[in-house]
Write a structure and sequence with these properties.
Number of domains: 1
Shape: globular
Strand content: 25-35%
Low-confidence stretches: none
Number of strands: 4
CATH architecture: 2-Layer Sandwich
CATH topology: Alpha-Beta Plaits
Helix content: 25-40%
CATH class: Alpha Beta
Radius of gyration: 13 Å
Order of helices and strands: EHEEHE
């Protein structure tokens, strides 16, 4: 299944707000999957120096990732498909 990154600019976000967003993302992805549109939140990275967050999802489409984030009320600047590369795959 394709992988996507949701890029976010979150200046001033608190650690508690990050955790809350993660709970909402997890809940909304599970809800959409039960509805038949599989979306899985894989992980997120917060970059404190830039207030950016990169959140990785597995889904059939970019639109499904956007819908999950919209339902979770988590803003994003863009969602793009990514190619995963790990030390084991190169």
């Amino acid at each position: 299944m394709p992988l996507f990154v949701a890029k976010r600019d979150l200046p001033g976000i608190t650690p508690d707000a990050l955790v809350s967003a993660g709970v909402r993302a997890k809940t909304c992805c599970a809800e959409m999957t039960r509805e038949g549109d599989s979306v899985r939140w894989i992980r997120s990275f917060f970059l404190p120096g830039t207030s950016q967050t990169h959140c990785y999802f597995e889904a059939a489409s970019q639109e499904a990732v956007a819908e999950a984030n919209t339902r979770a009320r988590i803003p994003f600047t863009e969602i793009v498909e990514v190619v995963e590369m790990t030390p084991e795959t190169v």
